[in-house]
Specification:
A 4-stranded antiparallel sheet has the order 7-6-5-8, with helices on one face. Strands 1-3 form a two-stranded antiparallel ribbon. Strands 2-4 form a two-stranded parallel ribbon. With 166 residues, it is α+β, with helices and mostly antiparallel strands.
């Protein structure tokens, strides 16, 4: 199995935005990949072709079930290519990664089905420091918050968000 990992070197002024933009480039590069599309179509089988809510919930459930949370190595961000994550899930039944990895995988799966996504950094902290990344998917005029590592449904009350379109 070929490992496709990328360690991110971030600018001092905008490290969060830079990370989100790098993540977006991984999603854009892989949303047309046949392995990503085949997996998304298999997971959403049975959903009506235009039922984006059904498709989103099935893909979110898949990523939640297939990804185990694991911190990045000490000293930097490590963002996995979504195809690498898919291959690990196929080989081992699950993959480990942090919120960046789960968001990239979920966004690529949604984008391959034509659902517009945003990578969104959020904060729940009083100091408003961004500390978590999730996906927002556009359905009609609404953005739906999708977080593979959140147990409760819906979006919590954030103190700050930073959204980057894919």
């Amino acid at each position: 199995m070929r490992t496709q990992q990328r360690r991110v070197g971030l600018a001092r002024r905008r490290p969060i935005r830079d990370t989100l933009q790098l993540m977006g480039s991984l999603v854009r590069r892989r949303r047309d990949d046949r392995r990503v599309r085949d997996l998304a179509l298999r997971i959403t089988e049975g959903c009506a072709p235009l039922d984006d809510r059904c498709r989103m919930m099935r893909l979110l459930s898949y990523v939640k079930g297939a990804m185990a949370y694991e911190r990045d190595p000490r000293g930097g961000d490590l963002i996995h290519d979504p195809v690498d994550t898919i291959e690990r899930i196929a080989a081992y039944g699950a993959a480990a990664g942090d919120c960046d990895d789960a968001a990239v995988l979920l966004s690529a799966l949604l984008e391959t089905l034509g659902i517009k996504t945003y990578l969104t950094a959020v904060s729940l902290r009083p100091d408003r420091r961004l500390h978590h990344v999730a996906v927002e998917a556009k359905v009609g005029a609404f953005l739906i918050y999708l977080d593979p590592f959140r147990r409760a449904r819906g979006a919590p009350a954030f103190t700050r968000t930073l959204r980057v379109p894919v």
